[in-house]
């Protein structure tokens, strides 16, 4: 679907618009090579690695550069995000890992002249790229523009950006709500000390786990500073009812993260915060708008709908690092879950009744 | 201001739902000016913010000035800026919406010695004329009725009356309960407060243009000595074949400070603007303006 609700079906990546002569460019799509109606893609994971194409928006280009026929790629919604990377007159098209691989012999040279662009590409391959690349970018900035500029980049662009991405990942689709967007802007602040930075995180976002904070601290260490994290009480925003997005949203199945949140909501509204797996499966639809795809029968458990199987998995896959038990949001009761104080806190951070 | 928004279905020049111009010869109302008259102007004027695309921004830096261009609404050459807020929409007929949206470039300008503005409005007039504020506006109030006095203390008084302080203005949060204090006949004030509510925190997708104070100048504005900061994507400070060196060279030559944001193609335009807003907020905060 395009942003105006018209179905665009499959499209070809036919062109790009560039910011400058090197690095990532904006991929532009059309129905065919000679198309005169253009689109840009939306990612399922904006700004992140491993995203898929969630939809297409009309785009009115100003300085379009067409790809040669042999580089045109057909794609569609649900398929991996495609990038265009420019380097020394050549154009590289594909997923970030494909481009990363195609650039193997040039990477050292790119790191010398355009380390920020290389780092951005690397972040498309892995969420947390090799710390050497971060170090290289920081050193390059220091030597080229001085310590003040490089410190600003390190604190406000790179490390704050990392924290924001981690928080957004946890919040899932809720991160797009107006009041959460504003809170993200105002409540995540990096203060610079001489050899230490303090990352202030609003208490509503205190659900970031130790492993995430450790990864950010490691990235900070690679650019020469110790990071400390301070959870602080920030002015509580008034409770706002969840609002409906104006933009059409391409939805196939509800994400597992949304299902986890709905399961926590079921438990939060039960005595002692306890809900059995059967209760979770039957009541979760009170808290999440299920799609047609959520309701189709499971292939492996034909008596259950897909969404019920996902709920079952959330309860039974207790070894997963991303689940509600590892995050400390719920404990397993033997036949279901019991929400913890941290789980209730997490729901309240999302503006939901905890 | 010009409103030739090029994004399909987003905005057009001749949207009949837009706020209408007053017919020539009819006197405009002065209600908003009168409402703010008793307010003490806040000390120290806020900086002005001009948002454009990276392509247009490069040209501005290379020319050393922001050029006034033809405005379709007011039928003359104007430079448009907002007070403090990087609320962004198409500012003239040359830059295109999608490029501003996808590749924003921001200039923060000191207004102190720019001379008197051509006009000051308490919202984006292009958006108003295009009908972007929908049916929130009173159809019996004309565009000119919203105009503030064309001097910066008048804008500061308006902020004091409507928002209380600069930070609340920057955020778009009105003083609660203002509308209740107006008489039923104060239609301009009521209509403006309703429109301005679109920029406030409680809005579903806040439209910062709705209460951003628009300041227009009818002359080209030089950068040197006036621009305090330029914000653009970090890719532009890397240099592969010299083009970007030239850009940075122009910035240095004109003593322009700069900051960058992290541009990536799979990011949403809203987030670029959030990054830019954060940089502007830090900058104004460091300058003691917020």
Please give the most extensive interface between any two protein chains, plus how many residues each contributes: A-B, 59 and 48 residues
Would you identify the regions of chain A where 5 or more consecutive residues have pLDDT less than 50?
A: 235-251
The separation of the N and C termini of chain A measures: 35 Å
How large a portion of the residues of chain A is in β-strands, by DSSP E? 15-25%
Tally of extended strands of chain B?
10
Supply the number of structural domains of chain A: 3
Gap between N and C termini of chain B: 28 Å
Largest sheet of chain A: 6 strands, antiparallel
Judged by helices, strands and strand pairing, the structural class of chain B is: alpha+beta
Question: How much helix, percentage-wise, in residues of chain A?
Answer: 25-40%
Query: What oligomeric state do the depicted chains represent?
Result: heterodimer
Work out the helix count of chain B: 9
- Strand elements of chain A, count: 14
Instruction: Tell me the radius of gyration of chain A.
Output: 22 Å
Overall, the morphology of chain B is globular
Count of domain modules of chain B: 1
Describe the largest sheet of chain B. Answer: 8 strands, mixed
Q: What does this molecule look like?
A:
The complex is a heterodimer of chains A (354) and B (290). With 354 residues, chain A is of the alpha+beta class. Chain A is built from 12 helices and 14 strands. Chain A has 3 domains: 96 residues, no CATH class; 86 residues, 2-Layer Sandwich (Alpha-Beta Plaits); 94 residues, Arc Repressor Mutant, subunit A (Orthogonal Bundle), CATH 1.10.10. In chain A, strands 1, 2, 5, 6, 7 and 8 form a 6-stranded antiparallel sheet that branches. In chain A, strands 9-10-11 form a 3-stranded mixed sheet. In chain A, strand 13 and strand 14 form a beta hairpin. In chain A, helix 1 crosses helix 3 and helix 3 packs antiparallel against helix 4. The longest helix of chain A is centred in the middle third of the chain and has 25 residues. Chain A is globular, with a radius of gyration of 22 Å. Chain B is of the alpha+beta class and 290 residues long. Chain B has one domain. Chain B contains 9 helices and 10 strands. In chain B, the strands form 2 sheets. In chain B, strands 1, 3, 4, 5, 6, 7, 9 and 10 form an 8-stranded mixed sheet that branches. A two-stranded antiparallel ribbon of chain B has the order 2-8. In chain B, helix 8 links the parallel strand 9 and strand 10. In chain B, helix 1 crosses helix 5. Chain B starts with 30 loop residues before the first helix and ends with a helix. The chains are: A alpha+beta (354), B alpha+beta (290). Chains A and B meet through strand 2, strand 3, strand 7, helix 3 and helix 5 of A and helix 3, strand 10 and helix 9 of B.
